[in-house]
Amino acid sequence: MSINLNVPDISARPVEKCVTKLKTEQVSLFYGSFQALRNITLDIPSRCITAIIGPSGCGKSSLLRLFNRMNDLIPGAKVEGNVELDGIPIYDARIDVADLRKRVGMVFQKPNPFPMSVFENVAYGPRRHGIKNRGQLEEIVEKSLRQAALWDEVKDNLGQSGLALSGGQQQRLCIARVLAVEPEVILMDEPCSALDPVATLKIEDLMRNLSQTYTIIIVTHNMQQAARVSDMTAFLMIEPDRAGVLVEYGPTAQIFTNPKDRRTEDYITGRFG
Amino acid sequence: MEIRTEFHKRLRQIQDEILVMGSMVSKAILRSIDALKNRDLELARQIIAEDKKINQKRFEIEESCVELIATQQPMAGDLRTIIAVLNIVTELERIGDHAEGIARIAIMIGDEPPLKPLIDIPRMAEQAVDMLHLSLDAFINHDAEAARKISAEDDTIDQLYDQVFRELLTFMLEDPRTITRATRLIWVAHNLERSADRVTNICERVVFIVTGKMEEIGASKY
Predict the structure, then answer these.
(1) Comparing A249 with A16, which gets the higher pLDDT?
(2) B77 touches chain A (CB under 8 A)
């Protein structure tokens, strides 16, 4: 039996901003005998942007990938503890992972459009989920490209290859591709690290707009970016055995002006690296 | 391992510059009282001219802060320190203006016969300068507790001010011909009282650096 994770159009749901969307309780993640994360407990608020920061190798991306079970693809990966989406444990054996990933989409560090047209890139997901009607697909493609702030730049040539776009446009195309399947949560793993400053600011602006409708979690090495775009910030650190632990989690304004933990202060002011 | 060594070096330099400016200002206050006591009009003119250097120092420190914010994106405690410095230089510059004000009064008084020997006014000045030094120590040491204690000393200055005011009022009541000279001395005392209030504001900024909280401490009676 599979637990039904499908819900109707989320815009129709009376979801209050900032109620808990995702939750981890005492979550530990192992890759074989190596412990990558230890006892992570945090509540991710709905329709907000949550940033995960911390030094290289502290488990930021591993934590992000917990939320759509991307770690399942890594041999030997094992999760302990509880991860919930809208109160439903997503590591329950009965969960349909494809369904979960439809609700929790992901944007990667390097823009990775499919080697096909702009239109087909965006229509790919809805097609896979069974939408065949051309008119309906056109509607979804336009809506998604508009939401991703790319429509005006590509509307006259939707047949061009996604690979022909600039880096920043490619990344927005990838965001449009995620939006096309109407997710509720968007995970972003260093989405701007391959982009120039102007393209970066465009994506950040887009994220602020999208956060009115979607819950966004972003992993970033760029602390200024975390400070600029996010509502909440989680700071992770590496323990001596190299496991990642959550040091501090709170409103972004507080973390960057008056962190409570000395280690957060030292990290964000560059007193250790 | 400290990784932003260059940035933190520049931040320390700015804090050192605050001490330099603090010393310029405290010297100006003490010298303005000397000028008043000794009828030294030349010294008074010198204090007025040197206030420009204090103003210039304030702009230099502000510019360094703006540059650090623009180029280094300071965070957390570093950000609070820079924001506090921007406030503290304004307070110091205004204390410098109070010293200049006293020097101008000294010139106005000129060689008029003294109304009375000056006792409480120099005491107010010493107390205000003492508070200023302690507040800058608290700033350098990031000591919120010390900062809170210093602001309590402002009460002593307020009491001295009351005393000076009452005494001069008595002079004026007894002999209206003293009104001009007595009023000028009240202005001097007022400049010193305001200087001490500005030291209290510096103390509030020290508390902000340490705790991240904006709080009013020891509100002055005046």
Answers:
(1) A249
(2) yes
Fold of A16-113+184-268: Rossmann fold (3.40.50)
Domain hosting B128: range is 5-211
pTM beyond cutoff 0.90 = no
Indicate the pairing of strand A185-189 with strand A104-107: parallel
Helix (H) or strand (E) holding B215, with range, is none
**Chain A neighbors of B211, CB-CB under 8 A:** 258
Residue A8: both structure tokens together: 């109707």
d(CA A172, CA A152): 12
Beta bridge partners, A238, equal A244
Q: What are phi and psi of B217, to 5 degrees?
A: -120, 135
Cβ neighbours for B8, distance < 8 A, ≥ 6 positions apart: A270, A271, B2, B78
Q: How far does B212 lie from chain A, in Å, by closest CA? A: 6
In chain B, which residue's Cα lies nearest the Cα of A253? B76
Using a CB-CB cut-off of 8 Å, the residues of chain A touching B73 are: 223-224
Please report, for chain A, the start and end positions of each structural domain, with discontinuous segments joined by +. Answer: 16-113+184-268
Task: Please indicate, yes or no, if residue B218 is contained in any of the structural domains.
Answer: no
What's the confidence (pLDDT) of residue A249? 97
Please give the torsion angle defined by the CA atoms of residues A59, A63, A64 and A66, in that order, rounded to the nearest 10 degrees: 140
User: Quick one: closest CA in A to B74, which residue?
Assistant: A269
Cβ–Cβ gap B1/A223 under 8 Å: no
pLDDT value of position B1: 63
Cβ contacts of B7 on chain A, cutoff 8 Å: 270
Give me the total of CB pairs closer than 8 Å, taking one residue from chain A and one from chain B.
42
Check if the beta carbon of residue B209 is closer than 8 Å to that of residue B77. Answer: yes
What string of DSSP letters covers B150-164? Answer: HHHTHHHHHHHHHHH
Chain A residues inside the 8 Å CB shell of B2:
270-272
Asked whether the predicted pLDDT for residue A271 surpasses 70, the reply is: yes
% residues pLDDT > 90 (chain B): 86
Residue B216 counted as domain residue: no
Q: What is the pLDDT of residues A196-244, one digit of tens each?
A: 888 899 899 999 999 999 999 999 999 999 999 999 999 999 999 889 9
Mean confidence (pLDDT) of chain A: 91
d(CA B39, CA A198): 64
Closest by CA to A171, choosing from A139, A200, A130, is A200
Q: Looking at residue A11, what is its pLDDT?
A: 38
